[in-house]
Amino acid sequence: MFAVIKTGGKQFRVAANDRITVAKIEGNPGDTVAFGSVLMLTDGEKSTIGAPFLGDITVAGEIVEQARGEKVIAFKKRRRQNSKRKRGFRAELTVVRITDILTGGKKPEMKKGEAAPVALKAGSETVKGKASAKPAKAKAEAKAEGLDASNLSLISGVGPTIEKKLRAAGITSWNDIAAWTEADIAKWDEELKLRGRATREEWVEQAKELLAGKPPRAKADQAELASGEDY
User: Fold this and answer.
1) Is 103 exposed, middle or buried (0-12, 13-18, 19+ CB in 10 A)?
2) pLDDT for 51
3) Is the domain covering 139-224 a CATH 1.10.150 domain?
4) Domain spans of the chain?
5) Is a pLDDT exceeding 70 seen at residue 180?
6) Strand 10-14 and strand 2-7: pairing?
7) Which has more confidence, 2 or 55?
8) Which helix H or strand E contains 63, and what residues bound it?
9) pLDDT digits (tens, 9 = 90+) for 119-163
10) Are 188 and 180 in contact (CB under 8 A)?
């Protein structure tokens, strides 16, 4: 038995125990994930294609690891303008092991894996020897160590001109950008004439990374190029 699922804008042919690498899915290694967008199911010689027949089919998987793709270099040069720019990009990916293909409306048992030590440290505080979770709002508004959340230029793709546009529109911190929905991105893209930069440069993901305490992508890429090692 195998199925064709859709996730992250791509299609994958999967069967039990297959490993696939998909666009990033939030979670920790060991977490159960469910793919409800099933395009086709083949069981022996019988194949089922399209809705509504596939609405009661779910593909279950387990997160194996969070990874990053190979670096892609984007180089732009304007002739006779003494202008050139070189940037690196590495896609955030998730490796998933397919555990089962469930039919008949069955749903997988959603299990949670163990969070990484860094995530546990960031997500809880020790009070009198006991761990207590921080409020979600406090997490979202936390500042990366040594960095100012109002410094929009630390988001790769936000230059001085675009930063002025954002501030004029009332967008003054990483928290504002991290809270954007797809509708917000489309709105600001049209109003501020961003030409798809927010989506292409993953501003929302970058803002969330900065709030989580990760270094700015531009600085991380520069350090990686200088050292010759992958971060």
Assistant:
1) middle
2) 65
3) yes
4) 2-105, 139-224
5) yes
6) antiparallel
7) 2
8) strand 58-68
9) 444 344 434 444 444 444 444 444 444 567 888 888 988 888 888
10) yes
